[in-house]
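Data card: per-record layout.
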Amino acid sequence: MGYKSTISKPFCNWIARDTAKWTANAARDQDNIMKQLIKKARNTQFGKDHQFASINDHLSFAA
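The structure for this 63-residue chain is written out next.
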C-alpha cells in the first residue's frame, strides 16, 4: 500500500462517519433550524405581516 492510501484511508473513514452523523439527524436539525429562524423573525415587521407567531411546525408554515 502506498503512502497516499495509508494517509487517505483514515481521513476518508473520518469523513464517512461525520457524514453519517449528519444524515442520521437531518430531519431533527432542519426542524430546529426552522424554529430558530421563525422565532428570530417573529417580531420583525415581515414576521408580523405574515403571522409568524402562529407558525409552530412545518405544516403550519406550509399553510
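Known properties of this structure: The chain is about 75% helix and 0% strand. The radius of gyration is 20 Å.

See the next section for split statistics.
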